[in-house]
Design a protein that fits this description.
Elements lengths: L2 H11 L15 H6 L12 H16 L2 H16 L2 H16 L2 H16 L2 H16 L40
Helix pairs in contact: 1-3
């Protein structure tokens, strides 16, 4: 077992830390097998680190071989990212964790809908998104600056004026 793999599992797993020192002998045989390369230094590790490693080793031991292979692939991908990309990825993960269940569901549905589009349409949308990312950011206006118009997008927090509803006028045709 690769120690770096274990470290990534702990990092990505969001384990909670109970800052109590973990005695090596209190670890299960499976945990000891996973953490064997760290046994000689175990007593010198901070208790929070011991707890994280013990929890990560327990998770690793409970994984199927397929899950372990997938975790190893994620670690290999993680290693290819620059420090800036890693920081951005962690920030996105944290942002996702702060979302309400409703917001997560909405995002998941949008991803599902996107995935069901033809590849040509996905490419068009990706290109539009990239173009939007390159535009200079407008100053943020307070949410109260522009009242929302029911049924229309609220552009108030983008610094743009609200979109006024267009009346439905029918013109008689002779």
């Amino acid at each position: 077992m690769n120690v770096k793999t274990l470290a990534l599992l702990i990092l990505m797993g969001g384990c909670t830390v109970a800052h109590a020192a973990v005695d090596w002998n209190s670890l299960s045989p499976a945990q000891q097998a996973v953490l064997a390369p760290m046994q000689k230094d175990w007593a010198t590790l901070p208790s929070a680190r011991q707890e994280k490693l013990a929890l990560g080793a327990a998770r690793w031991s409970a994984m199927t071989p397929q899950q372990r292979a997938e975790a190893q692939q994620r670690l290999e991908f993680w290693k290819t990212l620059s420090p800036q990309e890693q920081a951005e990825t962690l920030a996105k993960r944290d942002e996702y964790r702060r979302m309400t269940p409703e917001q997560r569901l909405k995002l998941q549905q949008a991803q599902k809908n996107f995935g069901q589009l033809p590849m040509s349409q996905q490419l068009i949308l990706r290109k539009r998104f990239e173009q939007l990312q390159q535009l200079p950011q407008l100053p943020q206006a307070p949410d109260t600056a522009v009242p929302a118009t029911p049924g229309l997008p609220n552009t108030g927090n983008m610094g743009l004026p609200a979109i006024a509803p267009v009346p439905n006028i029918s013109v008689p045709v002779h």
